[in-house]
Design a protein that fits this description.
The complex is a heterodimer of chains A (389) and B (242).
Chain A: H1 3-15, H2 18-54, E1 61-65, E2 73-74, H3 75-84, E3 88-103, E4 106-115, H4 119-122, E5 127-130, H5 135-140, E6 144-147, H6 149-156, E7 165-168, E8 171-179, E9 184-185, E10 188-189, E11 194-197, H7 198-204, E12 209-210, E13 212-217, H8 223-238, E14 244-248, H9 249-292, H10 294-302, H11 307-344, H12 352-378, H13 382-387
Parallel strand pairs in A: 4-11, 6-8
Antiparallel strand pairs in A: 1-13, 1-14, 2-12, 3-4, 3-7, 3-13, 5-8, 6-11, 7-8, 9-10
Chain B: E1 2-11, E2 18-28, E3 33-37, H1 44-51, E4 59-64, E5 67-68, H2 74-84, E6 85-88, H3 100-109, H4 115-128, H5 144-156, E7 162-166, H6 174-189, E8 193-197, H7 201-204, E9 209-214, E10 217-223, H8 237-241
Parallel strand pairs in B: 3-8, 3-9, 6-7, 7-8
Antiparallel strand pairs in B: 1-2, 1-4, 4-5, 9-10
Helix pairs in contact in B: 3-4, 3-5, 4-5, 5-6
The chains are: A alpha+beta (389), B alpha/beta (242).
Bound molecules: adenosine-5'-triphosphate (ATP) and magnesium ion (MG).
Chain lengths: 389, 242
């Protein structure tokens, strides 16, 4: 029997039992759709988180003292670190505090970040408009402020804020610049801040202590060396490796990546299991079908069908079930992924790889789970098959 | 044509061992029309299955058309069935999802004949049994006699040298049975070798030789001196042509 004839036969038999054919396919459809949709969501999430971490600033090293270990840093510590770690290009203390900003009668609660002139470079966060404050401004503890986009739009409703005066916790500040838009990162709106000189911040919120010290290495290759150097220093100083956390952005990135990759794999595994269940559904139906058609198999053999012909006939049926189910599943999966990205505002990634994988997998399911029933059919003894009631 | 030499067929092993045929030797010439008779369980179907290459003898030798087929493997037997043998069953055994034409095409499908030739030959075979008008009917739309005629067309379409029929009239009333026997006689006249199993003495009298089986042994083999002539009733134009 030719392949073409086999496909015709399979079609006749599958079309003769449409509901059963559809329900059998449904298992594969759901499995394949789940594989594609979940893997796309996983990959989309990975990309999202990665780009957010990257938006913190390339090669950023964050040095955070542990309050619970009784360690606190002041602005001077930043200078000390800069002097002791030659691999670092720039070091910047950061004071963070919640404040209320006001312009005219509009007031807005936000966060002030006391930083230095290195901020645009270290955070990879340039100004869009106006200028950032200078070393002299920091030196003088000038009352100047650079606004994040969110703060600017809240206070000025689209007006140009540069040159105007706002108050922060009641003290007047001149707005000298507006930062570019950075977007959210790890659940935080990065545009919701006001940057002021760290010296001014010390006075404004009456603290000597900084929340963290940010640094960047002289080159990307030196990041690991710098981190090692810093950890050495703090270990030596405090005899406690929990006292100060030194976190490099690239480390964070790889940690986050390994988490999201695990997540994607887990989603794929769950979806894979549903595909497996779909395959078992095919096997089940094919076994029922072989039993039901025992007499037919006997007749075909009496008329000259060889083992191979019968094997092929049943295999074509199961591959057809899995293949067509696979194609429908791919369409549904891609559609589902697009729908979810539309609803969640999330960039899902439908990769050619995952589509191809799902299709090959479903075809393999058809062959794999169809093979045993088909072999049972092919190996039937014609006389016993003909006697079967 | 058919040459069984000391053939024995044993089913099962140990306690459930059944000797269905014992030391059967049978010779059927090309162009004969033979009836096999015997009580239920005597081994008639077993004998037919052996002749039809659906099964192999446990011991003994079977030479079909000059070729020893008792040692062929499954695929070779399938080929012999496809080329040399046409089967007609008591229960018709048409495939329910295929229409009459598609059922008749089947032996040619397994011969890998191109579609156009298949359809042409299948149509000719259906016309030959008087079902030219019913080609696209499914088995459940046909009477028992019509189904059996489709089955005969299917057995004939590959131009086999032997037609084997196991109680072909067993499920039919006497009139439909008469039609079937008329077709068989016509085919036999055209040169086909025909072996049929029957319980009906009258059906057997349409053949030219009767073989009797009892408990797996051949116990009788006599020619029919004056075979009955079946009157083809189905026949409108076909019989007129023949
Ligand atoms: N596959 C089998 N396994 C075991 N025993 C079998 C098998 N086929 C047939 N037999 C036995 O072989 C003997 C002959 O069976 P067979 O079917 O040839 O009889 P039969 O003459 O055709 O009977 P009937 O007229 O009822 O069809 C019986 O005793 C039967 O039980
Ligand atoms: Mg029988």
């Amino acid at each position: 029997m030719s392949i073409q004839e086999g496909i015709r036969m399979a079609w006749l038999s599958l079309a003769g039992n449409k509901l059963r054919t559809f329900l059998t396919m449904l298992g594969v459809i759901i499995g394949v759709a789940a594989v594609i949709a979940l893997v796309s969501i996983g990959q989309g999430a990975t990309n999202e988180v990665t780009s957010q971490v990257q938006s913190l600033g390339a090669n950023l090293i964050v040095i955070t003292p542990s309050m619970s270990a009784g360690v606190r840093f002041t602005v001077d510590d930043a200078a000390t670190i800069a002097a002791r770690v030659p691999e670092l290009a720039q070091v910047m203390p950061v004071i963070t505090a919640p404040v209320t900003a006001q312009y005219g009668i509009t007031s807005y609660d936000t966060t002030v970040q006391g930083v230095t002139e290195s901020f645009p470079v270290i955070r990879d966060f340039p100004v869009a408009f106006g200028r950032f404050f200078s070393a002299a401004d920091v030196q003088d503890a000038a009352n100047v402020a650079v606004l994040g986009q969110t703060v600017s739009s809240q206070l000025f409703k689209g007006l140009n804020p540069v040159g105007r005066t706002i108050t922060i916790n009641g003290q007047p500040f001149q707005v000298i610049g507006l930062l570019t838009t950075k977007g959210g990162s790890l659940g935080q709106n990065q545009d919701d801040l006001i940057a002021i000189p760290v010296t001014t911040a010390e006075r404004l919120v009456r603290t000597r202590y900084v929340a963290a010290i940010y640094a960047i290495p002289k080159s990307a290759d030196l990041s690991a060396v710098a981190v090692g150097h810093l950890e050495n220093i703090f270990q030596h100083q405090y005899q406690n490796d929990q006292a100060v956390a030194v976190l490099a952005q690239d480390q964070l990135l790889s940690t986050v990546n390994s988490v999201t990759t695990t997540l994607t794999l887990m989603l794929a595994a769950i979806a894979g299991i549903s595909l497996l269940v779909g395959g078992i559904g095919i096997m089940n139906i094919m076994l029922v079908s072989v039993t039901e058609r025992t007499r037919e198999i006997g007749v075909r053999k009496a008329l000259g069908a060889r083992r191979r012909d019968v094997l092929q006939q049943f295999l074509v049926e199961s591959v057809f079930l899995a293949g067509v189910g696979g194609v429908i599943g791919i369409l549904l999966g891609v559609g589902g992924a697009l729908l979810i990205s539309g609803l969640a505002g999330w960039a899902t990634r439908v990769s050619v790889g995952s589509v191809l994988l799902a299709f090959v997998f479903s075809a393999a399911v058809g062959v794999g789970f169809g093979l045993w029933p088909a072999m049972r059919a092919a190996n039937l003894n014609p006389i016993e098959a003909l006697r079967y009631e | 044509m058919i040459d069984l030499q000391h053939v024995t067929k044993i089913y099962g092993q140990g306690d459930v061992r059944v000797t269905a045929l014992e030391d059967v030797s049978l010779h059927v010439e090309r162009g004969e029309m033979v009836a096999i008779m015997g009580p239920s369980g005597s081994g008639k179907s077993t004998l037919m299955n052996l002749i039809g290459c659906l099964d192999r003898p446990t011991t003994g030798k079977y030479v079909l058309a000059g070729r020893d087929v008792s040692t062929l493997n499954d695929n070779q037997l399938a080929r012999v069935r496809n080329r040399e043998i046409g089967f007609v069953f008591q229960t018709f055994n048409l495939l329910p999802r295929l229409n009459a034409l598609q059922n008749v095409e089947l032996p040619l499908v397994y011969r890998r004949e191109p579609r156009a030739a298949r359809v042409r030959k299948a149509m000719a075979a259906l016309e030959m049994v008087g079902l030219g008008e019913r080609m696209h009917h499914h088995p459940n739309q046909l009477s028992g006699g019509q189904q059996q005629r489709v089955a005969i067309a299917r057995a004939l379409v590959g131009e086999p040298s032997i037609l084997l029929a196991d109680e072909p009239t067993g499920n039919l009333d006497s009139r439909a049975g008469e039609e079937i026997m008329a077709i068989f006689q016509e085919l036999n006249q055209q040169g086909i070798t025909l072996v049929l199993v029957t319980h009906d003495e009258r059906v057997a009298r349409h053949c030219r030789r009767i073989i009797r089986v009892l408990d797996g042994r051949l116990v009788g083999d006599e020619p029919v001196t004056a075979p009955l002539r079946a009157v083809p009733v189905h026949s409108d134009q076909e019989a007129a042509q023949a």
